[in-house]
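Duplicate of #3305? Posting structure anyway:
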C-alpha cells in the first residue's frame, strides 16, 4: 500500500497550493485512494476519497475543498451532487463523460486505469468532468492521452516500470507529459512527488 506526500503548485507560476498526504492500494473492487490536503501554512485544506472498479470507472468519489463537497459516481455517464459550505444548497449534475478529474494526482492514475493504453496504441480521446478548486465547480473537458514510452528502472526493490504519457487538451491543443509508476504519479504539471514510504502497487 503506497503512502506518501505530493506537493501541488500552480503549473504556470509555481505558486505552492497544498500538500497532499495520500495512501492507495488495489482492492477487491479495483483501486482506492484516500488523502488529506493541507495548505502551505499547515491548515486543513480538503480531502479526496476515490474508489475505482476493476475497469477503472469511478465507483465512488467524495471530494472536500474549502467546505465545499462533491459526491459522485459513474452513472449514466458520471453523476454528482455538489453541496455548498452552509450545507443548505445541493445541486445535482450529470454529464456524458467517462470519469472525473481535478487537481489531485488520484485522477491522473484513474484515467490511466480507465484507458489501459499500450505504447503501440494510438492516442485515445476521453471526456472528463473537472472539479476545479477552490469551490469544486464542475466543467466538462476533452483530452487525448497517448502512452509514449514504458521503461523499467532497476531499484533495490526490483524493477520499477515507469510509463510516460502525453496528454493533450483538445480545446487549446496544449500538451504536457505525465510520468507514472504503478499507482503513483512521479511527475505531472502542478504535481511533485515529495515522499514515498512504500513502492507503488503493481497492477496485473
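Output from current build:
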Amino acid at each position: 500500500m503506497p503512502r506518501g506526500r505530493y506537493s501541488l503548485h500552480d503549473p504556470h507560476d509555481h505558486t505552492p497550493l497544498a500538500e497532499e498526504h495520500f495512501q492507495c492500494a488495489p482492492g477487491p473492487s479495483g483501486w482506492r485512494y484516500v488523502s488529506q490536503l493541507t495548505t502551505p501554512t499547515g491548515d486543513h485544506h480538503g480531502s479526496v476519497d476515490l474508489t475505482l472498479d476493476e475497469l477503472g470507472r469511478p465507483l465512488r468519489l467524495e471530494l472536500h475543498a474549502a467546505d465545499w463537497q462533491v459526491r459522485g459516481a459513474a452513472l449514466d455517464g458520471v453523476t454528482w451532487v455538489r453541496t455548498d459550505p452552509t450545507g443548505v444548497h445541493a445541486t445535482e449534475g450529470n454529464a456524458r463523460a467517462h470519469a472525473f478529474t481535478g487537481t489531485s494526482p488520484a485522477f491522473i492514475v484513474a484515467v490511466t486505469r480507465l484507458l489501459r493504453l499500450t505504447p503501440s496504441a494510438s492516442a485515445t480521446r476521453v471526456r472528463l468532468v473537472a472539479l476545479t478548486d477552490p469551490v469544486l465547480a464542475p466543467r466538462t473537458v476533452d483530452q487525448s492521452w497517448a502512452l509514449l514510452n514504458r521503461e523499467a528502472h532497476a531499484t533495490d526493490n526490483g524493477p520499477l516500470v515507469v510509463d510516460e504519457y502525453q496528454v493533450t487538451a483538445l480545446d487549446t491543443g496544449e500538451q504536457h507529459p505525465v510520468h507514472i509508476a504503478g499507482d503513483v504519479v512521479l511527475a505531472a504539471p502542478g504535481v511533485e512527488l515529495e515522499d514515498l514510504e512504500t513502492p507503488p502497487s503493481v497492477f496485473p
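Confirmed duplicate; merging threads. The radius of gyration is 16 Å. The longest helix spans residues 105-115.
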